[in-house]
Design brief:
- By secondary structure, the protein is an alpha/beta fold.
- It contains 13 helices and ten strands.
- It has two domains: 144 residues, Rossmann fold (3-Layer(aba) Sandwich); 112 residues, Rossmann fold.
- The chain is 47% helix and 17% strand.
- It has a six-stranded parallel β-sheet with strand order 4-3-1-2-9-10, sandwiched between helices. Strands 6-5-7-8 form a four-stranded parallel β-sheet, with helices on both faces.
- Helix 1 links the parallel strand 1 and strand 2.
- The radius of gyration is 18 Å and the shape is globular.
- The two termini are 22 Å apart.
- The structure holds D-glutamic acid.
């Protein structure tokens, strides 16, 4: 099984991309809906939650772990790798960084994400190591997660908030924008429109899914352990009547959620 986890249901954007590329392998998803959001919490707390989430997936039989959450990917990966030696981890930061590096022509890159992701400084470090001429401009965009979860995808308020978040980045002349949060691919059309034609978007859900698919394709040994099966098994740490609607919005198909008993 491919284990995927996120702070909540937004990580289903990654599951959707995995299903498009490797539908033959069973996916086990855990959304920590009881403790979401992570994007406002400290790196220490996020790391503790990430270890618990990984434990859950491994105990249920996951053979590789995909960290769909940008906040976890920005703060907890070294600890996770130390804690779970030998387990292949995939995260959303590295493939997004690599894609942005390939896309940019003018070396001005923008990024929106949660506060914890932006404050982690991980992208600054990666770009600095790769190319000192790259300028990274970041803006936390914390209002987008609740707007998306409320289903306000086409409201004028959402459009104007997206525009507000992008103005400072556009003023810097960025030609590439990283959507550094599980939820933002859902607003890709509006973000593309407000960012303008010159700006190319990096969608982490596509980048990580591509990386996982390539890894599995070249790893015949692992393939044997990934159990063929279409339907993803989705677990949450809390369940309300609205969660299935939200999950359906991210996955674009009907979803049954299983509640974990702590
Ligand atoms: N999953 C989080 C991320 O990608 C967004 C939601 C949250 O703050 O927990 O950063």
């Amino acid at each position: 099984m491919i284990g995927v986890f996120d702070s909540g249901l937004g990580g289903l954007t990654v599951v959707k991309e995995l299903l498009e590329r490797i539908p033959q392998f069973k996916i086990l998803y855990f959304g920590d809906t009881a403790r979401t959001p992570y994007g406002t919490k400290s790196a220490e707390t996020v790391t503790r939650y990430a270890i618990e989430n990984t434990n859950f997936l491994l105990e249920k039989g996951a053979k590789i772990i995909v960290v769909a959450c940008h906040t976890v990917s920005s703060t907890a990966i070294p600890e996770l790798k130390k804690h779970f030696k030998g387990i292949p981890f995939f995260e959303v930061v590295t493939p997004s960084f690599k894609k942005a590096l390939r896309l940019t022509k003018n070396k001005k890159i923008g990024l929106i994400g949660t506060r914890t992701t932006v404050e982690s400084g991980i992208y600054q470090r990666l770009f600095m190591e790769a190319d000192l001429q790259i300028k990274l401009y970041t803006n936390p965009a914390p209002l987008l997660v609740p707007l998306i979860e409320e289903g306000w995808l086409k409201k004028p308020e959402t459009r104007s908030i997206v525009k507000k978040y992008l103005i400072p980045l556009k003023l810097r002349g960025i030609d590439t924008l990283i959507l550094a949060c599980t939820h933002y691919p859902i607003l890709k059309n509006i973000i593309a429109e407000k960012a303008g034609k010159r700006v190319k978007l990096v969608d982490p859900s596509e980048e990580v899914a591509e990386e996982v698919a390539n890894y599995i394709a070249s790893n015949t040994d692992l393939k044997k352990h990934l159990e063929p099966d279409g339907e993803p098994e989705i677990w949450v740490s809390d369940l309300t009547p609205n969660f299935e609607n939200i999950a359906q919005m991210f996955l674009r198909r009907k979803v049954k959620l299983n509640k974990l008993l702590w």
